[in-house]
Amino acid sequence: xxRQIAAIGALVFAIVVVTSSAQTQTPQKPAAxxxxxxxxxxxxxxxxxxxxxxxxxIAVLFWRDKEMSGDYVVRPDGQxxxxxxxxxxxxxxxxxxxxxxxxxxxxxxxEDPTVTVGIRAINSRKVFITGMVAKPGAYALTAPxxxxxxxxxxxxxxxxxxxxxILIVRAENGRQVAYKFNYNDFSKGKNLKQNIExxxxxxxxxx
Length: 207
Hints:
Blueprint: H1 2-24, E1 57-62, E2 70-73, E3 79-82, E4 86-89, H2 95-106, E5 115-121, E6 126-131, E7 137-140, H3 147-153, E8 166-172, E9 175-181, H4 183-187, E10 203-206
Parallel strand pairs: 6-10
Antiparallel strand pairs: 1-2, 1-5, 3-4, 6-7, 8-9, 8-10
């Protein structure tokens, strides 16, 4: 009799444990995918003169049309693909220009479309630093940044670097242009104008 009571008690305890565990588990939401319905969320602050570029993530919201709304990654060819509208050029446009383009295209299918365009992430604006710095590589240019600021972001210049011969290589009008930066002079308060503001695509070389 005692064995039966003990067995029943153990069974009841096991059921309580399993039930409690099942009730405390929280369902996991599936990760958002490209083209999934757009939802309210954080938008990136746009730097002055920003235009959309490849790899940027764009939030497109059509009022009362969830099927056409979504977050879209700009492809290397500069386009995004929306339901019904197919391929739409995005790179090279401001968010407002893209909104106008989408509104015009959608007006052929929807009566009085209301479109909102936001930027989830800016991945196209990058500068590159190589050579004698602590952390060479590509860095996102999401705010005004000077040469000295980028050197600091990259962990600083190595002790044995040639600080007098740092170069900023930039593409201008289809050709490569080099700007010199003398770190030693700048640190002494000389020739401060050489600390130029960087532009997307700039390459900083620290020999």
